[in-house]
Each structure stands twice: as C-alpha cells, then as structure tokens.
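Translate sequence into structure tokens.
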Amino acid sequence: MKLKTLIFFLVTFFVKANSILLPMDAEGQQNHLKAYGITYWVLTKDYKVNWLLNYRGGSFLMPDSEEIRKECKIRGVTFEIISDGETASILNEISSPSQNMESVVLEKAPKIAVYTPKGKQPWDDAVTMVLTYAEIPYTEIYDEEVLSDQLLLYEWLHLHHEDFTGQYGKFFGAYRNAPWYIEQKLQAEELAKKLGYNKVSEEKLAVSKKIRDYVIGGGFMFAMCSATDSFDIALSAEGVDICETMFDGDPSDANYQEKIVYNNTFAFKNFTLEKSPIIYEFSDIDTTNDRQNKRVPFEQDYFSLMDFSAKWDPIPTMLCQNHTQLVKGFMGQTTAFSGDKIKSNILRLGECKINGEARYIHGTIGKGMFTFYGGHDPEDYQHKVGDPPTVLDLHPNSPGYRLILNNVLFPAAKKKKQKT
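Result follows.
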C-alpha cells in the first residue's frame, strides 16, 4: 500500500510540475539580464514562451524540461517549477479584464545584427556588452553588409554608437590629434572610397537610407546615444552638405539649416543643427547641455517608465517591462530628447520630469518599428572615452539594461494587431 501511495504521489507531482516560471520581479530574480538569455535560448530550442506582461515584473513562462532547468542553474537564473493548476491560475488572473496584464506568446528567436565598425573600442557599445553577458548570439555587420542588402537576413538591428552625418562623432574639438581619431577618420574615408563614394557623409547617407528601407519593409531597429539623432539628421539632410571643411574637404552649403526636410525623419522635427565643428553636439534634439544648465543633480537623475494598457497596447507594454518604474539616468553624447522636438505620433516610453525630456521613445514606420534610447551606458553615469567597459556581473539586475533586452525579445512575439 505504501508503495502504491508513493507511486501515486510521484506521478501526481510530475504531471503537475509541467511549467517553468522565470520570475522577473525585484525580489524573485537573482539575474534579470541572464533570464532574457535563457528565454532566447529556449526559443532556439523550438519551445514557445509566454511573456507575462506586468505579472511579477514581466515574467517568462515556459514548458518544463530537464535541459531548461539545467541551463538556468548553469547561468544562475532563478526559476520556479509550477503545476498545471498554478499555471492555469496565473493565466486566469492575467486574462481578467480587471487586471492590467497580458500573456504574449514568443514564438521564434529573432536573428540579430549589430551595426558596428571593425576594431571598435571597448567603450563603444552597451548593447554588444549586454548581449554577450546574456549569451544572446548576434552578427556584427557594417557598411559593406548594409549596402549589399544583407539586412534582409535579420529581424532585429542595433545601431552602434555612430555618427551617420559624416562628422566623425563631432570629436574634432577635443580629439583631433588623438591617434585613434586620426585612424578612425582615415579608415572611414578609405571605406567610403572603396564603396564608390567621394565623401564619408555621402556613404553614410546611403547606409541610412538602406536602414530606413529595412525598417519600412518590416524590420525592427533599436538605436542608442548618438545613433538616434545623427540617423534622423542624415535623412533630413539628403542632398545638403552640412559638414565643414575639416570633415569632408570643402565648406558646408550656405544656409543649410533652411534646407533640412523634417518629413524625412523617423522621430524628430523642427531641430536646429549645431554648426560649430568644435562643439560636441549635433543639434538641439539632445538635452545634454540644457540639463546641465538646469542643474539636474546626479541623485535626482531618474526617468519614469510610462504605464500602458497591456491588453490594448501590448507593444509599448512589452518594451517597458521592468521590476521598477523608476530607472537611473545616464549620460551620453545624446543623453535624452527634447520634448518639443519629438513628432506627435511617437510614443514616449520613458521621461525625465525634471527636465521635460524623453529618454526612451518608440515609433512605427511602414511595416516596421524602431526604438530610440538616449544615453550611452545604463550603469556608467558619465562614460568617457578611454574608460574601461562596464562589468555586468556587478549589475545583473540593471533596470536600464533590461530595457535593451526587452527590445531584443520583442520581435519574437506572435504578431497581433495593435488596437490603438
């Protein structure tokens, strides 16, 4: 009798324990960043995952298997084994009209491309650091691949900390004599010539237009720091020389500001370009200088994530999943976006109330979507040229880095028409 009871207990246990929950709340998860990597890995194994929006910080629900348990243990990711009954109870709670929650099915791991130059410096890109840390695979591409239409191989594109205007990051004022600046300028000129362009600005415009077409055709683009505003500026200045002599060998067009076409941009409008070649700024889209004048103190530099309806607006809800609504601010060449320079059709996902700026925005263009995220490194407040890269083992629960990884998983979601 005792043996039969034991067998019944074991059978009952294994029938019920058929789901794995990766909790993503503040108390429940010891490594939020690697939890995204586990979820991506599970998708590569042809399992489907439910992203439980607004449930315990945006938790992940997946089938139970020994290989998933083992992988969680290896990577140090907290997981819970839950029964059929518990799973049904969670999904029932989420489906209730009274709850601002939703369950979104993730079906396929997106193929990821990171736009980055060969031989990049260690300070260059927070996204490659967090993808590497989370063990999410990606392919590095640059201008040659973009211009030969290789973007079509990928569902998700990240734009490296980049200057698409051909002004070499506006580093001329401070670093014109630095060996790395001289070398990077030379390499950019050689690449432009190799690809058949007379100027780097012309070659970068061609790249920008290919990326634009990729997004319009249905791709998803994520950009950070100066890749955000410089991309839009490049598109707005098509056919206009906005580069001074030290950048491209000849003067800029007279009155070039009047020739800017704001209709060509993804996100920004009515901006004024910074004409001085020695000022480390592209335009007044960025609020870095303005926030310094208003003295946004370090201890108060936070931005709030917006609250969307999970059932009616699942897309922005996915992009804002976190274990806190208040995220630490961080600087960059492009730190944040001036509120009056953002087009009315663009969603503001994260805002700093002190300065009236948007830190995190999202939009749709054609069949595709894009997200712009201001700042350089979410866990290095004022990262400087030459500083060592951030050690993410020290920040496994970073809310700022979680926003990046929300964007990585977003294209895996089962397509569902947005209701608003």
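Note: The first helix runs from residue 2 to 16.
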